[in-house]
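Notebook p. 47: complex prediction with heme C.
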Amino acid sequence: MIVLVLALACATEADTGCDDAAPVTWNNFGHGFMTTYCVGCHSVENTDRRYGAPTGVDFDTEDDAIEWAARTRVRVLEDGDMPVGGGVYAADLELLDTWLRCELGE
Ligand code: HEC
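Predicted complex, C-alpha cells below:
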C-alpha cells in the first residue's frame, strides 16, 4: 500500500512538471512579480490611490500571495483581466503559473 501511494505521488509530480522545473519562489520571483504588476494598486500602504482595488486585497507579502493564490490564477492566467490594462510579459506568465502550481498548490 505504501509503495502504491509513493508511486501515485511520483506520477502526480511528473504530470505537473514541478519536479523538473527550477523552483520558483516568493524570493526569486513572486515578490518581484507582485511589486512590478500588482502592488501599484494592491498595497496595504496605499489607501488613496488604489484605482478601485478592493480594501484588503493586497500583494505586499508572501502571506498575501498565498491567501490570494487561487484568485490570482483566475484573474491573471485564466481571465487575463489583472493587472488592469494587461502588459504582463509572456515569460512572467509562465513563471507565475509554475509558482502558483508548484509552490502554492494552486
Ligand atoms: C491599475 C490598478 C490595478 C492593478 C495594477 C492590479 N489590480 Fe487587481 N484589482 C483592481 C481593481 C479596480 C479591482 C476591483 C474590480 C475587479 O475585481 O475587477 C481589483 C480586484 C482584484 C482582485 C479581487 C477580486 C477577485 O477576483 O477576487 C484580485 C484577486 C486582484 N485584483 C488581483 C490582482 C493581481 C494578482 C494583480 C497583479 C498581477 C493586480 N490585481 C493588479 C485594480 C488593479
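Notes: The chain has a mean pLDDT of 90. Residues 38 and 84 are 9 Å apart (CA to CA).
Next step: compare against the earlier run before touching the bench.
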